[in-house]
TrEMBL record:
SUPFAM superfamilies: P-loop containing nucleoside triphosphate hydrolases. Pathway: Cofactor biosynthesis; coenzyme A biosynthesis; CoA from (R)-pantothenate: step 5/5. It is an enzyme of class 2 (transferase). It catalyses: 3'-dephospho-CoA + ATP = ADP + CoA + H(+). Catalyzes the phosphorylation of the 3'-hydroxyl group of dephosphocoenzyme A to form coenzyme A. GO terms for cellular component: cytoplasm. This is Dephospho-CoA kinase. Pfam families: CoaE. GO terms for molecular function: ATP binding; dephospho-CoA kinase activity. ATP binds at A12, S13, G14, K15, S16, T17. It comes from Parageobacillus thermoglucosidasius (Geobacillus thermoglucosidasius). PANTHER family: BIFUNCTIONAL COENZYME A SYNTHASE-RELATED (PTHR10695:SF46), DEPHOSPHO-COA KINASE-RELATED (PTHR10695).
Length: 199
Protein backbone atom coordinates (compact mmCIF):
# COMPACT_ATOMS: atom_id res chain seq x y z
CA UNK A 1 0.00 0.00 0.00
CA UNK A 2 1.43 3.35 -1.04
CA UNK A 3 1.42 6.21 1.44
CA UNK A 4 -0.36 9.30 0.07
CA UNK A 5 0.60 12.58 1.68
CA UNK A 6 -1.33 15.83 1.17
CA UNK A 7 0.91 18.90 1.32
CA UNK A 8 -0.73 22.24 1.85
CA UNK A 9 -0.25 25.68 3.38
CA UNK A 10 -1.11 29.25 2.56
CA UNK A 11 -0.31 31.17 -0.60
CA UNK A 12 3.46 31.79 -0.64
CA UNK A 13 4.02 29.83 2.57
CA UNK A 14 6.61 27.64 0.85
CA UNK A 15 4.82 24.64 -0.68
CA UNK A 16 6.80 24.78 -3.93
CA UNK A 17 10.02 25.15 -1.96
CA UNK A 18 9.15 22.00 0.00
CA UNK A 19 7.96 20.02 -3.04
CA UNK A 20 11.32 20.70 -4.69
CA UNK A 21 13.00 19.07 -1.66
CA UNK A 22 10.59 16.12 -1.82
CA UNK A 23 11.33 15.55 -5.52
CA UNK A 24 15.06 15.63 -4.71
CA UNK A 25 14.38 12.68 -2.38
CA UNK A 26 13.01 10.80 -5.40
CA UNK A 27 9.39 10.97 -4.24
CA UNK A 28 6.79 11.95 -6.87
CA UNK A 29 4.76 15.11 -6.28
CA UNK A 30 1.50 15.90 -8.06
CA UNK A 31 1.03 19.67 -8.25
CA UNK A 32 -2.63 20.82 -8.19
CA UNK A 33 -1.69 24.36 -9.30
CA UNK A 34 0.07 22.98 -12.40
CA UNK A 35 -2.88 20.73 -13.22
CA UNK A 36 -5.25 23.69 -12.68
CA UNK A 37 -3.22 25.55 -15.33
CA UNK A 38 -3.29 22.60 -17.75
CA UNK A 39 -7.05 21.95 -17.55
CA UNK A 40 -7.92 25.52 -18.61
CA UNK A 41 -5.74 25.62 -21.72
CA UNK A 42 -7.39 26.31 -25.06
CA UNK A 43 -9.29 23.24 -26.28
CA UNK A 44 -9.98 21.82 -22.82
CA UNK A 45 -13.55 21.51 -21.57
CA UNK A 46 -12.99 23.87 -18.62
CA UNK A 47 -11.62 26.52 -21.00
CA UNK A 48 -14.95 26.73 -22.83
CA UNK A 49 -16.90 26.74 -19.58
CA UNK A 50 -14.81 29.64 -18.23
CA UNK A 51 -15.48 31.73 -21.35
CA UNK A 52 -19.19 31.00 -21.02
CA UNK A 53 -19.15 32.08 -17.39
CA UNK A 54 -16.77 35.06 -17.53
CA UNK A 55 -16.98 36.26 -21.15
CA UNK A 56 -14.43 36.81 -23.93
CA UNK A 57 -12.94 39.79 -22.04
CA UNK A 58 -10.85 37.45 -19.87
CA UNK A 59 -8.91 36.17 -22.90
CA UNK A 60 -5.47 37.30 -24.02
CA UNK A 61 -4.76 38.20 -27.64
CA UNK A 62 -3.48 34.67 -28.31
CA UNK A 63 -6.82 33.23 -27.09
CA UNK A 64 -5.48 31.74 -23.84
CA UNK A 65 -7.01 32.78 -20.53
CA UNK A 66 -5.51 35.95 -19.06
CA UNK A 67 -4.73 34.66 -15.55
CA UNK A 68 -3.97 38.10 -14.14
CA UNK A 69 -7.36 39.39 -15.33
CA UNK A 70 -9.25 36.37 -14.03
CA UNK A 71 -7.31 36.55 -10.75
CA UNK A 72 -8.24 40.22 -10.30
CA UNK A 73 -11.92 39.23 -10.63
CA UNK A 74 -12.04 36.11 -8.49
CA UNK A 75 -9.79 37.23 -5.62
CA UNK A 76 -12.01 40.27 -5.04
CA UNK A 77 -15.37 38.52 -5.24
CA UNK A 78 -16.30 35.31 -3.45
CA UNK A 79 -19.25 34.55 -5.72
CA UNK A 80 -17.05 34.77 -8.82
CA UNK A 81 -14.40 32.63 -7.11
CA UNK A 82 -16.96 29.95 -6.30
CA UNK A 83 -18.07 30.00 -9.93
CA UNK A 84 -14.52 29.45 -11.14
CA UNK A 85 -13.84 26.77 -8.53
CA UNK A 86 -16.97 24.86 -9.57
CA UNK A 87 -15.62 24.71 -13.13
CA UNK A 88 -11.95 23.99 -12.45
CA UNK A 89 -11.89 21.83 -9.32
CA UNK A 90 -13.69 18.70 -10.60
CA UNK A 91 -11.31 18.53 -13.58
CA UNK A 92 -8.29 19.00 -11.29
CA UNK A 93 -9.48 16.28 -8.93
CA UNK A 94 -9.99 13.77 -11.75
CA UNK A 95 -6.55 14.38 -13.24
CA UNK A 96 -4.81 14.28 -9.86
CA UNK A 97 -6.36 10.93 -8.99
CA UNK A 98 -5.40 9.47 -12.38
CA UNK A 99 -1.80 10.65 -11.96
CA UNK A 100 -1.63 9.27 -8.44
CA UNK A 101 -2.95 5.90 -9.61
CA UNK A 102 -0.28 5.80 -12.34
CA UNK A 103 2.51 6.34 -9.77
CA UNK A 104 1.07 3.66 -7.49
CA UNK A 105 0.87 1.23 -10.41
CA UNK A 106 4.53 1.92 -11.12
CA UNK A 107 5.33 0.88 -7.54
CA UNK A 108 5.85 4.24 -5.80
CA UNK A 109 6.10 3.78 -2.02
CA UNK A 110 5.02 7.36 -1.30
CA UNK A 111 3.13 9.91 -3.42
CA UNK A 112 2.69 13.55 -2.42
CA UNK A 113 -0.28 15.66 -3.55
CA UNK A 114 0.49 19.38 -3.36
CA UNK A 115 -2.97 20.94 -2.96
CA UNK A 116 -3.22 24.58 -1.82
CA UNK A 117 -6.94 24.19 -1.06
CA UNK A 118 -6.75 20.71 0.54
CA UNK A 119 -8.79 21.76 3.59
CA UNK A 120 -10.99 24.44 1.96
CA UNK A 121 -12.16 21.97 -0.70
CA UNK A 122 -12.45 19.12 1.81
CA UNK A 123 -10.13 16.81 -0.07
CA UNK A 124 -8.45 15.16 2.90
CA UNK A 125 -10.21 11.87 2.11
CA UNK A 126 -7.84 11.60 -0.89
CA UNK A 127 -4.77 11.34 1.37
CA UNK A 128 -3.51 9.31 4.35
CA UNK A 129 -1.56 12.09 6.07
CA UNK A 130 -1.44 15.88 5.86
CA UNK A 131 1.47 18.32 6.15
CA UNK A 132 1.00 22.09 6.48
CA UNK A 133 3.82 24.44 5.52
CA UNK A 134 3.48 27.33 7.95
CA UNK A 135 4.85 30.88 8.09
CA UNK A 136 3.93 33.87 10.27
CA UNK A 137 1.47 36.39 8.74
CA UNK A 138 4.07 39.11 8.21
CA UNK A 139 6.53 36.72 6.54
CA UNK A 140 3.77 35.40 4.23
CA UNK A 141 2.73 38.91 3.19
CA UNK A 142 6.31 40.03 2.62
CA UNK A 143 7.28 36.94 0.56
CA UNK A 144 4.09 37.13 -1.54
CA UNK A 145 4.53 40.83 -2.34
CA UNK A 146 8.18 40.27 -3.22
CA UNK A 147 7.68 37.14 -5.36
CA UNK A 148 4.66 38.38 -7.36
CA UNK A 149 5.31 42.12 -7.31
CA UNK A 150 1.88 42.57 -5.70
CA UNK A 151 0.78 45.65 -3.75
CA UNK A 152 -0.18 45.02 -0.12
CA UNK A 153 -3.86 45.16 -1.12
CA UNK A 154 -3.45 42.59 -3.91
CA UNK A 155 -1.50 40.27 -1.65
CA UNK A 156 -4.00 40.52 1.21
CA UNK A 157 -6.93 39.79 -1.15
CA UNK A 158 -5.27 36.49 -2.07
CA UNK A 159 -4.35 35.59 1.50
CA UNK A 160 -7.92 36.32 2.65
CA UNK A 161 -9.38 34.06 -0.06
CA UNK A 162 -8.02 31.10 1.91
CA UNK A 163 -8.61 29.50 5.28
CA UNK A 164 -6.32 31.18 7.85
CA UNK A 165 -2.99 29.32 8.07
CA UNK A 166 -3.38 28.94 11.84
CA UNK A 167 -6.57 26.93 11.30
CA UNK A 168 -4.82 24.70 8.79
CA UNK A 169 -2.08 24.06 11.36
CA UNK A 170 -4.71 22.74 13.80
CA UNK A 171 -5.99 20.30 11.20
CA UNK A 172 -2.59 18.98 10.09
CA UNK A 173 -0.91 15.69 11.03
CA UNK A 174 2.46 17.46 10.78
CA UNK A 175 3.59 21.07 10.45
CA UNK A 176 6.73 22.47 8.83
CA UNK A 177 7.69 25.90 10.16
CA UNK A 178 9.13 27.72 7.14
CA UNK A 179 9.93 31.01 8.88
CA UNK A 180 13.58 30.06 9.14
CA UNK A 181 16.24 29.05 6.63
CA UNK A 182 15.78 26.62 3.76
CA UNK A 183 18.09 24.19 5.58
CA UNK A 184 15.94 24.27 8.72
CA UNK A 185 12.88 23.53 6.59
CA UNK A 186 14.64 20.57 4.95
CA UNK A 187 15.55 19.10 8.36
CA UNK A 188 11.92 19.25 9.49
CA UNK A 189 10.76 17.55 6.29
CA UNK A 190 13.26 14.71 6.74
CA UNK A 191 12.17 14.16 10.34
CA UNK A 192 8.52 13.87 9.31
CA UNK A 193 9.25 11.51 6.41
CA UNK A 194 11.45 9.32 8.61
CA UNK A 195 8.75 9.18 11.28
CA UNK A 196 6.16 8.11 8.70
CA UNK A 197 8.53 5.63 7.03
CA UNK A 198 7.94 7.52 3.77
CA UNK A 199 11.50 7.41 2.38
C1 LIG B 1 -7.47 32.72 -10.56
C2 LIG B 1 -6.30 32.15 -11.33
C3 LIG B 1 -6.57 32.17 -12.83
C4 LIG B 1 -5.07 33.06 -11.04
O1 LIG B 1 -3.95 32.50 -11.65
P1 LIG B 1 -2.44 32.84 -11.19
O2 LIG B 1 -1.54 32.28 -12.24
O3 LIG B 1 -2.35 34.30 -10.85
O4 LIG B 1 -2.23 32.08 -9.81
P2 LIG B 1 -1.91 30.51 -9.56
O5 LIG B 1 -2.86 29.66 -10.31
O6 LIG B 1 -0.46 30.27 -9.75
O7 LIG B 1 -2.29 30.35 -8.01
C5 LIG B 1 -1.46 30.89 -6.99
C6 LIG B 1 -2.02 30.55 -5.63
O8 LIG B 1 -3.27 31.23 -5.45
C7 LIG B 1 -4.08 30.46 -4.56
N1 LIG B 1 -5.37 30.19 -5.24
C8 LIG B 1 -5.58 29.87 -6.54
N2 LIG B 1 -6.88 29.69 -6.78
C9 LIG B 1 -7.51 29.89 -5.61
C10 LIG B 1 -8.86 29.84 -5.20
N3 LIG B 1 -9.81 29.53 -6.08
N4 LIG B 1 -9.15 30.11 -3.92
C11 LIG B 1 -8.18 30.42 -3.02
N5 LIG B 1 -6.87 30.48 -3.34
C12 LIG B 1 -6.55 30.21 -4.60
C13 LIG B 1 -3.31 29.16 -4.30
O9 LIG B 1 -2.60 29.27 -3.10
C14 LIG B 1 -2.34 29.08 -5.42
O10 LIG B 1 -1.19 28.35 -5.05
C15 LIG B 1 -5.97 30.70 -10.87
O11 LIG B 1 -5.46 30.72 -9.57
C16 LIG B 1 -7.17 29.74 -10.94
O12 LIG B 1 -7.56 29.32 -12.01
N6 LIG B 1 -7.73 29.38 -9.76
C17 LIG B 1 -8.83 28.47 -9.68
C18 LIG B 1 -8.35 27.07 -9.58
C19 LIG B 1 -7.76 26.77 -8.23
O13 LIG B 1 -8.46 26.73 -7.22
N7 LIG B 1 -6.45 26.53 -8.18
C20 LIG B 1 -5.77 26.24 -6.94
C21 LIG B 1 -5.60 24.82 -6.61
S1 LIG B 1 -6.54 23.62 -7.40
N1 LIG C 1 12.73 29.44 4.09
C1 LIG C 1 12.68 30.44 3.19
N2 LIG C 1 13.49 31.51 3.31
C2 LIG C 1 13.41 32.55 2.44
N3 LIG C 1 12.57 32.59 1.37
C3 LIG C 1 11.75 31.54 1.20
C4 LIG C 1 11.76 30.42 2.09
N4 LIG C 1 10.83 29.53 1.65
C5 LIG C 1 10.27 30.07 0.55
N5 LIG C 1 10.81 31.27 0.27
C6 LIG C 1 10.43 32.19 -0.83
O1 LIG C 1 9.10 32.62 -0.57
C7 LIG C 1 8.32 32.64 -1.76
C8 LIG C 1 7.12 31.72 -1.62
O2 LIG C 1 7.55 30.35 -1.59
P1 LIG C 1 6.89 29.25 -2.55
O3 LIG C 1 6.83 29.75 -3.95
O4 LIG C 1 7.60 27.96 -2.28
O5 LIG C 1 5.42 29.23 -1.90
P2 LIG C 1 4.13 28.41 -2.33
O6 LIG C 1 3.46 28.04 -1.03
O7 LIG C 1 4.45 27.34 -3.27
O8 LIG C 1 3.28 29.54 -3.06
P3 LIG C 1 1.90 29.41 -3.96
O9 LIG C 1 0.81 29.11 -3.00
O10 LIG C 1 1.72 30.77 -4.53
O11 LIG C 1 2.12 28.37 -4.97
C9 LIG C 1 9.27 32.26 -2.90
O12 LIG C 1 9.76 33.43 -3.50
C10 LIG C 1 10.39 31.49 -2.18
O13 LIG C 1 11.61 31.58 -2.86
Amino acid sequence: MALTIGLTGGIASGKSTVTKMIRELGIPVIDADQIARDVVKMGEEAYNQIIQAFGQEILQEDGEIDRAKLGAIVFHNEQERKKLNAIVHPAVRRRMLAEKEAYVQKGAKTVVLDIPLLFESELTHLVDKTIVVYVDDDVQLERLMKRNGFSKEEALARIQAQMPLREKVKKADAVIDNNGTIEETKQQLWQIFKRWNAL
